[in-house]
Model the fold of this input.
Amino acid sequence: MNALLRIIAWTLAVALVALPVVALLNGWVASERWPLRTLRVQGALHNVDEAQLRATVLPYAKRGFFAVPLEDAQAAVARLPWVESAEVRKHWPDVLEVQVVEHRPFARWGTDRLLSEKGRLFPSKGIRVPASLPQLGGPDTRVQDVVAMYNESRVLFASSGHDVKALRLDARGSWSLVLSDGAEVIVGRSDARPRIGRFARLLPQLLAQPQGALRRADLRYTNGFALQWGDAPAAAAAGTTSQGNT
Done:
């Protein structure tokens, strides 16, 4: 009996010590005694709305210094538009610090997302998208391949004074791109890089001919291209053309 009483006594003693600590850490008591009075935002905010950021963090900060759920607050900040990563810390006695790194957009991706310079996709909803961004697209698993092809294509067409304003890889693995003057280039699936390189080298010669503006180039041929000009009703062949597989 004495042993049982000792166990009960020790249990009550532990509970009396632990319960106040648990209550403190969960914000059940004394949150008003250790309030978080200062929100410190670190990082250069060019696109993140600071007022929205503060409003997002405030509900978590109200629980007091000891009970603020840092991971939950951090996850909430990370979901805001333009936020690539976020870290939330607290500093005694009353400071909550939020470190934010913004996405730096590299391109549009599909219809409703952007691609960051670090190769991460993020929603474009609520974001004012810069008009100068190129339009890229493809399977999410092929982001690196699409970016690599875009960069290589830009270098190839630069010598003719053109830029690549759009590039797409469809679900079947077929490439297509749009040049800065609006010309559409259908590349296909096979030997995409050699075909683009060959066409880019010949482009200045093709444009020197008085056929008008180039509207469309189909590179899916063995020994040439099928070209469509702005003032031509039908496609004109460049070189020896034969229908190839896409």
Notes: The radius of gyration is 30 Å. Residues 2-25 form the longest helix (24 residues). The helical segments are 2-25, 50-61, 70-78, 143-158, 192-208. The chain has five helices and 13 strands.
